[in-house]
Amino acid sequence: EMVLPKWGYDATAQGMMQMQFHFSPWDPLPEVQRNIDTINRKIGFDYVWVSEEDYEDDEGRPRDRNFGRGGKLKMLYLYGGGVNASVAKMQCANVFKDSPMYPKMEFTVFDGPHESHVSWHLNPIMQQMIRPFGETVYLYYERVPHANSQRECWPGIDASLNALREHFRKKGPYDGVVGFDMGGELLLQV
């Protein structure tokens, strides 16, 4: 009997990817499995199907995982554009606080290599919300002329891909990655 590993994802229509963690073996219906395979081939997301005997314990942890300290899952978080690590840590806590696995996860935040000012956000309410966490925010790339434009280009994405590659080389491996908004878009490019 085949099961999907405890990590999965949702891909939105805009091409953003947000990793979701199910933390329990899932036996998909054959048609669901075919859909997942089709999506993964299209976006190049690599995963493996594992069998029950590949699990180490009753909590469903694969034998080759839990790279964090004390047997925790070592997770990498890539945030949305125009925030910083302080905001990202709060986002992780809010998103995963109700998950029974949250105490078993250890998050590292990958800061974008492009520094900006909180005024990068055009909306003054957004600026006001982020300002208590610092005036400096980071980006993985810029969107020119603006987000979701037909002729949009992403200056700076090559530097971010190189920085992420170097981060994985120095600090990897990770049990999983979580990408929100711009961070999810960067993960899709990887």
Structural class: alpha/beta
In whole angstroms, the N-to-C terminal distance is 31 Å
What is the tally of beta strands?
Answer: 9
Q: How is the main sheet built?
A: 3 strands, parallel
Q: What count of helical segments does DSSP give?
A: 5
Query: How much strand content do the residues show?
Result: 15-25%
H-E order = EEEHEEHEEHEHEH
Uncertain ranges: 1-28, 42-52
The strand order across the widest sheet is: 6-5-9
Keywords: Hydrolase
Organism: Alexandrium catenella (Red tide dinoflagellate)
InterPro entries: AB_hydrolase_fold, FSH-like_dom, LovG
Protein name: Serine hydrolase domain-containing protein
Quickly list its features.
single chain; about 190 residues; alpha/beta; three-stranded parallel sheet; two-stranded antiparallel sheet; about 30% helix; hydrolase activity
Task: Describe the overall structure.
With 190 residues, this protein is of the alpha/beta class. It has one domain (2-111, 157-189). The protein is 29% helix and 19% strand. It has a 3-stranded parallel beta sheet with strand order 6-5-9. It has a two-stranded antiparallel sheet with strand order 1-4. Strands 2-3 form a two-stranded antiparallel ribbon.
